[in-house]
Amino acid sequence: MGLIVFLIVVVVVLVWVASAYNGLIALKNQTVNAWKQIDVQLKRRHDLIPNLVNTVKGSMNFEKDTLQAVVDARSKAMASGGGVKETAAAEGALSGALGKLFVVMERYPDLKSSQNVRDLQEELSSTENKIAFARQLYNDVATGYNTKQQQFPTNLVAGLARAEHAELWELEDKAEGAVPQVDLSLQKPQG
Amino acid sequence: MTAGLNLFEQQARNRRLTVAWLALFILFFAWLGFGGDLAFYLAAASRTEGQVAYRFPWIGVVVTSIAAIVAWVSWRKGPQQVLWSTGARELVAPQTLEEKQLVNVVEEMAIAAGLPKPKTYVIDDPDPNAFATGRDATTACIAVTTGLLAVVNREELQAVVAHEMGHVRNLDVRLMTLIASLVGVIVVLSNGMGRMLRGSGSLLGGRGRKGGGPLLVAAAIVFVLWVITLILAPFISRIMAMAVSRDREYLADATGAELTRNPGALASALQKIETHEAPTTHIKEGAAHLCIADPLGRDVNLKDGRLADLLATHPPMAKRITRLKGMAFQQLKAAGQLPAS
């Protein structure tokens, strides 16, 4: 009788360990996949930027600095390593530079009315959105993954599943949030 | 009532409801088929005094197999039929800026929901409206009218698409497709059987009286119950379908707001959709329960109350807008700031 009870307990524990392990692995893969989704969109943005720069270059001779900032930020972002923090910082700077460029472009009615530029702008702002939504999903999935590996009793099998804390993509306020304000308040319209 | 449920609870609930509907449907057809057999069997037994003259349950077998076939076909073809009936065209190569925006916005929301990108359709209709259909996330389709593209801005379009993506993610599309196909079968079969009965009513009449007895009474009772279900089934199944659909609109609003983190945009989109309210002529009654706003422009959706609760496919627009504005307010309060633009 005692043996049967013991065997049942062992089986129950094994089943639980297997399901907890599998759950953690599934979450881990979801996190990796969510990160890849961000990567896809970042690459797309990197590909789109040269088109935009070439298109607006001619009409925006006076805004060389703004354009150069975008180009520089892009190459920096492309060169940055794979870590969440570095990528977040470099891509945040690129978003800031792009935002600045869009604000400046508002001052050129010819540019704004050009079909080509409007299409490009739609593509780029959609890509910006996709990056933001992919980041949102990544952060949600990664938070779920982190919570699961810390919670009892799943934390007991976290080591077995080689679960590691997934870093979140934090928004850097100074890079993204404040840029439009800088443009609107400090810069006076030129020419 | 469902506003407090999270995504996984809602998905689980939809899965349970799907199973419940299927079970109900099977039971209903078993009754429709074999109940009829039982009535005839009892009637026959009462005539021949115990000797069984009527053995094989033909009605049951025939009805059940017809129902299974029709349900299966409409389950597989339902979404395409809905799209076809509205004259929707798939947006493969977007031409105008508006169309490009729509395709982009759908892609953005698919990313936000972490789902494959649904097919995008456009309906040439001046009334702003939108709906989602499909069996699951991989077969999902989102359709919007040209009227919607004309009146809303990018943010609002995003909010509307997010609402539809909410239906896809919560598995509402699956449940609604299933219910639509089952209700369709019930209506068709109930009409058909009703007609058949009128032709063969004499079977239970006159001749049976000679035998008489409790068996015939039992046969009559079963038969009457059977006819009543046959008559009421279409109404009841429709009312149940409406209740299911109404429930889901609030939740899709909430899911949409969760995806965009921008409930205010959906509130203003709904407001615009409401002020442009006119019947969407291209969307027939069969697809009404799928739309973001009732395409038939029925007054019953605007009112609140018992009868409205029973008959409307959508909750009152004013209530939905109020809830979304509440969410937007909470968001601002949490962030401690005023709207950015």
How is the secondary structure organized here?
The complex is a heterodimer of chains A (about 190) and B (about 350).
Chain A: H1 2-57, H2 64-79, H3 84-105, H4 109-113, H5 115-150, H6 155-158, H7 173-177, H8 179-185
Helix pairs in contact in A: 1-2, 1-5, 2-3, 3-8
Chain B: H1 7-47, H2 58-85, E1 89-90, H3 97-113, E2 119-123, E3 130-133, E4 141-145, H4 146-151, H5 154-169, H6 172-200, H7 214-260, H8 263-275, H9 306-311, H10 317-335
Helix pairs in contact in B: 1-2, 1-6, 1-7, 2-6, 3-5, 5-7, 5-8, 6-7, 7-8, 8-10
How would you explain this protein's 3D organization?
The complex is a heterodimer of chains A (191) and B (341). Chain A has 191 residues and is mostly helical. Chain A has one domain (2-185): de novo design (two linked rop proteins) (Up-down Bundle). Chain A is built from 8 helices and no strands. In chain A, helix 1 packs antiparallel against helix 2 (64-79). The longest helix of chain A has 56 residues, at 2-57. Residues 174-191 of chain A have low confidence and may be disordered. Chain B folds into 2 domains: 7-83 and 177-232, no CATH class; 86-173 and 244-334, Zincin-like, CATH 3.30.2010.10. Chain B is 65% helix and 5% strand. Chain B is built from 10 helices and 4 strands. Chain B has helices at 7-47, 58-85, 97-113, 146-151, 154-169, 172-200, 214-260, 263-275, 306-311, 317-335; strands spanning 89-90, 119-123, 130-133, 141-145. The longest helix of chain B is centred in the C-terminal third of the chain and has 47 residues, at 214-260. Chain B is elongated and about 80 Å long. The chains are: A mainly alpha (191), B mainly alpha (341). Chains A and B meet through helix 1 and helix 5 of A and helix 3 of B.
Major interchain interface with per-chain residue totals? A-B, 16 and 15 residues
Order of helices and strands of chain A, N to C? HHHHHHHH
Oligomer class: heterodimer
Counted up, domains of chain B total 2
Tell me how many strands of chain B there are.
4
User: So what's the overall shape of chain B?
Assistant: elongated
SS strand fraction of chain B: under 5%
